[in-house]
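Hello,

Following up on my earlier ticket. Below are the two sequence lines again, exactly as submitted.
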Amino acid sequence: MRIVVLAGGIGGARFLRGLKSAAPDADITVIGNTGDDIHLFGLKVCPDLDTVMYTLGGGIHEEQGWGRTDESFAVKEELAAYGVGPDWFGLGDRDFATHIVRTQMMGAGYPLSAVTEALCARWQPGVRLLPMTDDRVETHVLIDDPEGDGRKAVHFQEYWVRLRASVPAHAVVPVGADQAKPAPGVLEAIAGADVVLFPPSNPVVSIGTILAVPGVREAIADAGIPVVGLSPIVGDAPVRGMADKVLAAVGVESTAAAVAQHYGSGLLDGWLVDTVDAGRVDAVEAAGIRCKAVPLMMTDTEATARMAAEALALAEEVRA
Amino acid sequence: MRIVVLAGGIGGARFLRGLKSAAPDADITVIGNTGDDIHLFGLKVCPDLDTVMYTLGGGIHEEQGWGRTDESFAVKEELAAYGVGPDWFGLGDRDFATHIVRTQMMGAGYPLSAVTEALCARWQPGVRLLPMTDDRVETHVLIDDPEGDGRKAVHFQEYWVRLRASVPAHAVVPVGADQAKPAPGVLEAIAGADVVLFPPSNPVVSIGTILAVPGVREAIADAGIPVVGLSPIVGDAPVRGMADKVLAAVGVESTAAAVAQHYGSGLLDGWLVDTVDAGRVDAVEAAGIRCKAVPLMMTDTEATARMAAEALALAEEVRA
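Thanks for your patience. The regenerated structure is below:
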């Protein structure tokens, strides 16, 4: 079975670990979000791609969900001693090496997709990890300008990490997405897939950004294969992270049903909500999307594997 | 008193610590060698400038003489895990931060002299540290090609660090030096100096490279001020390092007298040799260079301060 998964960071990575366990023989291609990529200290940092790579490759800081295990912070300390910022983005020494290799390869002319493949040659994530695009896309968030009457756009990471999503987001804009081309292999993977899965990743700044690359949404909708998602909202709140903040910015309620309706029946064939949201199943089905309520808490790999198996089972239901 | 010092790495840096102790009120400008600068992992590394900066700023690894104290090597380990080399150049995590800041500033368009000043704002070395040039100069060493009948040029660091100067050097070429311009402040510092000192640094690849920047040698020779050097050769062998290897490449014997004659009386007014080389004093004086034998082992800051005081005293003798 050939499975395509659209993935953001922590939620996507953990779901993928469960999926690999549930479908060990599947051929899995991950299309990773690069909208939250950022240049820090002259280095190209790809948080979502790295979280997937480290998680599936056994290098992730388990409790934290991002960054490396057994990490140290000598470089960061020194940068602070030089007075060079920003100081709000936590890059560890081991993580720095990844960004140094990536930046050096990109400086030598390799596209991000080739660099990602080279990095994965070490990590052996057991999936084919593709960036959504080799072009530069940066998710910006429009917030009130604290130093003026107007509004200003900040990089997603500044909104998410520095400001902890504590101020209202008026809009979320994947800058550059309209001019971006899908990375080599992305459209081919979708066209050749048996099923497309949306993990419980952020529907706006993770999966939404991937879908904003021209051609991706169309390829998925036109592939004629089951497209099944898992709700990142459980009991009207995000399972982790602050997805509600950016859902508000795009005018979507923080409910498991509203997220499914936001994707829409033109794209989504099946949707899993948590058992606590069983009351929302009818609303989703009324929108033309097959829906089922199952436990959706990724407490460990076994629980996550059961979620993935439910998603694959729902895909077979809608295919039939 | 305004003192200009031409400095390489370890020898120059340790001498400068003694000089600051011997002449605490002096206004010291250091013209640093950049011929052994190298790009590693996409980052600009300036070993000699950093050794001076770390040594005078209190951050040096004392026993080793280069690199940072309390250093760790997580980044290097990770780069090796990615299979990215070279692995023969020992960059520590704290040191990496310096190169990251430098590379980022240079990428933003700042010349090396401005970057060096910014880095020194943290380290407060107590001297004005100038690179010899803002232009790219790379010292290459011509060696026998192990994979052919001919010869090949390798970067100085490859010859020095990877090969440990274990193969014959047929020539030493400061590539780019002929097109280089002295960095801002270099010629002005020489013109305004009361004395110029050559520490016991490598006469070929450190001081020789600085003198190869068009205008520097002429400015020193024409300044009409005492120019005094200290022999890096004691008892016919380098005090540290492998200066004899590169002296052979330029056809100079490894003796305290031959190095003075190599600089020549047109440049050098005074020369200190070690007491074990007292027998060489006459030969140096016969070449028109005032010479004195004093202890030249930089065993600690006090001994080094006495050497610096002797050099300054010799400068006053030749001035009189």
